[in-house]
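Input.
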Amino acid sequence: MSMDLLKDKSLFRQAAFINGQWVEQTAHGKYALRNPATGEVLVELPVCREAETEFAIESAHEAFQRWSKVTAKQRAEIVNRWYQLVVEHKEDLATLITLEEGKPLAEARGEIDYAASFLQWFSEEAKRVRGDVIPAPKDSQRIVALKQPIGVCAAITPWNFPAAMITRKAGPALAAGCSMVVKPASQTPLTALALAELAQRAGVPTGVFSVVTGNATRPVGNVLTGHPLVRKITFTGSTEVGRVLLAQSAETIKKCSMELGGNAPLIVFEDADLDLAVEGILNAKFRNTGQSCIAANRVLIQDGIYEQLAARLAARAAELKVGNGLEAGVQIGPMIDEAAVGKVEEHLQNAVAGGARVLAGGRRHALGGAFFEPTVVADVALGMTIAREETFGPVMPLLRFRDEAEAIAMANDTDFGLAAYLFSKDAARIWRTAEALETGMVGINTGLISSEVAPFGGIKQSGLGREGSHYGIDEFLEIKYLCWDGVTPV
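Output.
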């Protein structure tokens, strides 16, 4: 059994976590959670719908009344204890991620480090929430701006980073004094439930952090976006779903953070360090089997180095080891499900039909199931589906450009603006290109840009708001202005 792989078997939870209680059954039955690498049923979990979600929100509201009055220092200590417990249970948490999401265990360990970093960072930021004293227009007045926790927050998180996408939201929310109801992706709830267990051990009070399970995503989402007690929605996922959540949240004028889809360009100029570029491209494209919102969706290569770099990338992609993420040395795990594989095949077929060349991979892997070969495709054109839409899989499309102006125009020719990457040794070119790219984040001579100290987020149809960094906690705070008159001048 999967539980046998864990040192601390109590982290393998088979129930929703609402108002400090483990809810093993609901009136709506259960659904089966499967391992994407093997297809085996990992566990059956309760399906939560409207009633359970409403109870979680009401409990969170009651808890908020108390939690928001706890001192910043005390909140910091509790969130920091949560961080320490996540670090202590890193191996078990990583194993859960690999079991339910499929990524190689080495990557899963890296995700736990990343997830823990947000709890540590925001435990420190809890004590740094500051207001302002503002010069008043009258000498009898004093003007003060306070920052206060917004209230009950709802987090709807994706399956591709089941630990980090929760702590990146819950860390600042709890540090600010908010309570939170989390709806994790139906494909990856086990990591969320293990985090809830550790939060409880850390001393997070009853009702402050709840996890609603199930595959009834729309009914749960309707309650979270429509309930008047929820003051903040934070979502990571597709732009299509983000639009729906924004529209629904408008009815009750909720504050929203949206980290949505991407179509990240990666530009390689002729003067780039090609060794550095190859490593950066592989990291930016194939991490988590290409299932990342900031994955390089389009690799733009200058004419003079196109064929050379394409050959090197194809050779390296062919060497990547595909398999069950629990096996030693595996670099590429399964995709999340059959639908994801089907999307990759459709994009690839469209490209080949338009004249693109497959240099490596291009097929379902011999392992079968949800495994797909790491693929490199040359001679891709801007109009192809693979260059217009987010593929979200292990397929690397290569496009040509002539000069800097064309590269920037190609990179910006999209409705999305989450991340971009560029490789060059020319400092002036780097400045010009980075400033011209219409994205919220730019990686320069690197394919790895995520960090708890940096503001993560996009522009255009890639989202609203920022997560991480000192900006991240502001998303969970409201500013209150106090105008105090009657102070008699001396």
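The longest strand covers residues 142-149.
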